[in-house]
Amino acid sequence: MKRQFSFTLNGRQVSVSAPPAHTLLEVLREKLDVTGPKEDCGKGECGACTVLMNGKPVLSCLVLISQANHNEE
């Protein structure tokens, strides 16, 4: 079941429909065509998927899209 998620991406507000179990990395690459973060190990060990979230580096392969969501439901 997909839900609507909203967050700020590179200074602009975006909204995307995705299953809550998808990772931030999956949504960035597959739904928003942001290809800078890469999936390499998929376990959070290599750092290829690192992005800034609220000013702090996070491994986007380990962050669920719901954790980046601005919508409060």
Short description:
This protein is α+β, with helices and mostly antiparallel strands and 73 residues long. Helix content is 16%, strand content 30%.
Features:
73 residues, alpha+beta, Ubiquitin-like (UB roll), two-stranded antiparallel sheet, 2 helices, 4 strands, globular
Verbal overview:
With 73 residues, the chain is of the alpha+beta class. The protein has one domain (3-68): Beta-grasp domain (Ubiquitin-like (UB roll)). The chain has two helices and four strands; from the N terminus they run E-E-H-E-E-H. The chain has helices spanning 24-31, 65-68, and strands at residues 3-9, 12-18, 50-53, 56-59. A two-stranded antiparallel ribbon has the order 1-2. A two-stranded antiparallel ribbon has the order 3-4. A hairpin with a 2-residue loop joins strand 3 (50-53) and strand 4 (56-59). The chain is globular and about 30 Å long.
